Amino acid sequence: MARFYARSNAARKDEVSVSRRGASAYEARVRIIAIDPSLRCSGFAVLEKISGKVHTIEYGVVKNHPKLLPSGCLLAIRSRIAELIAQHTPECAVIEGVIFVQSHRTAITLGAARGAAILAAAEHGMPIYEYAPRRVKQSVVGRGGAQKQQVGFMVRVLLGLKETPPPDAADALAIGLTHFQTAESARHGAVVLERI
User: Fold this and answer.
1) What CATH superfamily is the domain 2-8+26-186?
2) Is 14 a catalytic residue?
3) What is the DSSP letter of 10?
């Protein structure tokens, strides 16, 4: 059985009203879902950027029981991500890119979890972007080889959270922050956003 742990700071729709003449949609409001896929414990985060400030809407983990078959884990990941997308209507999805692992079995398992998350976003017709783990750490911590605790600490500081999120949720939040930073650079022509 899959368990869902989530923190929600969701504002009511009528609390978010930005109407500036001449402001682009990106400057006004952008909502994304960020995913750190893993078969047993996938992190997720829904973030929103309003007029340059990033807010957490909801974050947490999809925690699958150790005895749940891999097929059941994949279904739980896809279902929870699809539920979050339907609930929060993000404009795009961002996901952690493929990481180097020593074991082929681990690579296949991570690829399957990634596929379940990508499928959920693709079913909703969303643009999907990916970021390599080292790039995310470099963006958030300032060092590509940063430890998980450092990522969690910086995410807490950057987003003004009261507590450090669980590691997988912190990774998803970091992926979301990296996307906002990269999208801002793309707006100024410094980089090109590449969809998968």
Assistant:
1) Ribonuclease H-like superfamily/Ribonuclease H (3.30.420.10)
2) no
3) P
